Amino acid sequence: MISRRSVLGGLGAVVGSVGISPAMSQGNSQGQSNAQGKGKKHQKNGKDLVGDKIKQNGNHKIDKADKIDVSVDVKDGKVVALKAKHPQKGDLQVGKVKSTEKFAVIDLSSNFHLTQATYVWYYAYWFMDEYGDYWYYWFTVEYIIDDGSWVVYYT
Q: Is residue 12 part of a domain?
C-alpha cells in the first residue's frame, strides 16, 4: 500500500526539480505565499543592462544587487546563463521563469477596427538574496534560448 507521506514527499521532489520558486511552491489555499522570503521583488530590464555586450561572447558583469555581483554568459548573441555571486556565500542558485502579457493591436487606417490579442513571452533569470528579496532580470525572446526549461511565472 502506498503511504500518503511517500506520495507527498515524491511530489515535493518533482516540484523542486522543475525550478519553481519558493514563493510559488509554498502557498496557502488562497494562493498567498508562506515562503521565508518575504522581501521585495526587484524587476530589472536585463536587455538594457546587457546592451551592446550581447555582441561579444563571454561573461559580462551587468549589475550589482546589494552585495551580489550579477553577470551573464553570452554566446552567439544570446544570454545562455546568469550568475549571481555573493562575496561570502559564493554562487547563488539561479532560476528561470517566463511570463506572457496581452497587448491590443488596433488598426486605425480604415473604418474597420481590428483588435487582436497577442501573447508576448518575456523571460527572466531570478535569484533570492540573503534578505529574502527576489531579483528578476527580464529579457525578450531575441536575447535567450527557449529550451523548454523556463517555468511560467505567477505574480
A: no
Mean pLDDT of 4-23: 40
pLDDT digits (tens, 9 = 90+) for 57-104: 999 999 999 999 999 999 999 999 999 999 999 999 999 999 986 344
Range of the domain at 146: 37-56+92-152
Which residues, in sequence order, are CB contacts of 59 under 8 Å at separation 6+? 71, 72, 73, 74, 83
Residue 17 lies in a domain: no
Answer yes or no: is 96 within a domain.
Answer: yes
Q: What percent of the chain has pLDDT over 70?
A: 64
CA distance 133 to 73: 23
Report the alpha-carbon distance of residue 26 to residue 129 in Å, rounded.
18
Number of domains in the chain: 1
Query: Which one-letter amino acid corresponds to residue 27?
Result: G
Q: In which residue are the cell numbers 514527499 written? A: 9
Identify residue 85 by its one-letter amino acid code.
Answer: K
Q: Is-above-0.85 flag for pTM?
A: no
Task: Specify the pairing of strand 95-106 against strand 151-152.
Answer: parallel
Confidence of residue 152 (pLDDT cuts 50, 70, 90): very high
Cell output for 21: 520558486
Q: Which three cell numbers stand for residue 5?
A: 507521506
